């Protein structure tokens, strides 16, 4: 009985000792060194961490993300500049107008205005409109007059067909001024009449229209007063009296005094001739009186 109690007590002691040892090993922070490294106490670990440089303890810095937090709206593609030449070429029957626009370089001004967000309205004469002019009309114009003629067909704003009725006359064009280049526009329903003072015509169709540029077809060339109006002729100079023949003057003055050797013009010449004739008559009378006196003396 005593041996059994001793054995039970021994097994119980071993079990309690093993349990206590296992519990102490699990709750201890110290770790066994690995691969032959010397063991360190828990008190030494923090000091070693503090002694290490920051680059070894902190995570490496990451590059900034290229994805923005707020997405920008998509950019609108810049529209291509309006090419008036291509529009007129595609429409057809505007070859003469295209040639004049290029020769006068007005086409460059038009494109520059459209590229800077300015608006324009072009009244485009057809080839038939230019054929209706008198022969040599365009060739008789100077370069400046051709430029003004083309500018006279351009209005400095976009005008739709329905807005022509809102214009006030005379309508301003890109020519010099409204005094020498007046343009009057009247409307009735969709009919638009154009008058220059020399030409009356109307818009016969729309060639091109957007919110910036409008091109309308006209069947006659708009002739402004400042270029084609007939001006009064200058008065003719006053007629001058013809000078007498030098030979006649010299022969007629040989019997007169030396002061009358120079030919005189007009009434002065007549007066001089009259004086010479009177002098000659007086001389003849005096000579006759002298002869009579001598004859009377001799007869006595």
From TrEMBL:
<comment type="function">
    <text>May be a cell surface adhesion protein.</text>
</comment>
<dbReference type="InterPro" id="IPR036378">
    <property type="entry name" value="FAS1_dom_sf"/>
</dbReference>
<feature type="signal peptide">
    <location>
        <begin position="1"/>
        <end position="25"/>
    </location>
</feature>
<dbReference type="GO" id="GO:0005886">
    <property type="term" value="C:plasma membrane"/>
</dbReference>
<feature type="domain" description="FAS1">
    <location>
        <begin position="81"/>
        <end position="222"/>
    </location>
</feature>
<feature type="compositionally biased region" description="Polar residues">
    <location>
        <begin position="25"/>
        <end position="59"/>
    </location>
</feature>
<dbReference type="GO" id="GO:0009834">
    <property type="term" value="P:plant-type secondary cell wall biogenesis"/>
</dbReference>
<protein>
    <recommendedName>
        <fullName>FAS1 domain-containing protein</fullName>
    </recommendedName>
</protein>
<keyword id="KW-0472">Membrane</keyword>
<keyword id="KW-0449">Lipoprotein</keyword>
<dbReference type="GO" id="GO:0098552">
    <property type="term" value="C:side of membrane"/>
</dbReference>
<keyword id="KW-0654">Proteoglycan</keyword>
<comment type="similarity">
    <text>Belongs to the fasciclin-like AGP family.</text>
</comment>
<feature type="compositionally biased region" description="Low complexity">
    <location>
        <begin position="239"/>
        <end position="261"/>
    </location>
</feature>
<feature type="region of interest" description="Disordered">
    <location>
        <begin position="233"/>
        <end position="261"/>
    </location>
</feature>
<keyword id="KW-0336">GPI-anchor</keyword>
<dbReference type="Pfam" id="PF02469">
    <property type="entry name" value="Fasciclin"/>
</dbReference>
<keyword id="KW-1003">Cell membrane</keyword>
<keyword id="KW-0732">Signal</keyword>
<feature type="region of interest" description="Disordered">
    <location>
        <begin position="25"/>
        <end position="84"/>
    </location>
</feature>
<dbReference type="InterPro" id="IPR000782">
    <property type="entry name" value="FAS1_domain"/>
</dbReference>
<keyword id="KW-0325">Glycoprotein</keyword>
<dbReference type="InterPro" id="IPR045003">
    <property type="entry name" value="FLA_A"/>
</dbReference>
């Amino acid at each position: 009985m005593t041996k059994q109690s001793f054995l039970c007590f021994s097994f119980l002691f071993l079990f309690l000792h093993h349990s206590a040892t296992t519990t102490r090993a699990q709750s201890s922070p110290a770790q066994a060194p690995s691969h032959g490294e010397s063991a360190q106490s828990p008190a030494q670990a923090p000091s070693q961490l503090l002694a290490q440089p920051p680059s070894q303890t902190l995570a490496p810095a990451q590059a900034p993300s290229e994805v923005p937090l707020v997405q920008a709206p998509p950019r609108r593609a810049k529209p291509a500049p309006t090419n008036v030449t291509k529009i007129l070429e595609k429409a057809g029957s505007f070859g003469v107008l295209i040639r004049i626009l290029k020769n006068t370089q007005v086409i460059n001004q038009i494109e520059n205005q459209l590229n800077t967000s300015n608006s324009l309205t072009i009244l485009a004469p057809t080839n038939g409109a230019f054929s209706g002019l008198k022969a040599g009309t365009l060739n008789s114009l100077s370069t400046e007059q051709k430029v003004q003629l083309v500018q006279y067909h351009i209005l400095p704003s976009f005008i739709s067909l329905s807005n022509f009725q809102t214009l006030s006359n005379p309508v301003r064009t890109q020519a010099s001024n409204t005094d020498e280049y007046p343009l009057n526009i009247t409307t009735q329903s969709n009919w638009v009449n154009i008058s220059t003072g020399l030409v009356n015509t109307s818009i016969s169709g729309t060639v091109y229209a957007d919110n910036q540029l409008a091109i309308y077809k006209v069947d006659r060339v708009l002739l402004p007063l400042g270029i084609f109006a007939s001006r009064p002729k200058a008065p003719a100079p006053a007629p001058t009296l013809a000078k007498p023949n030098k030979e006649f003057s010299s022969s007629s003055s040989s019997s007169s005094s030396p002061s009358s050797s120079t030919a005189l013009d007009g009434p002065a010449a007549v007066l001089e001739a009259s004086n010479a004739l009177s002098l000659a008559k007086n001389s003849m009378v005096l000579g006759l009186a002298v002869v009579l006196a001598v004859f009377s003396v001799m007869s006595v």
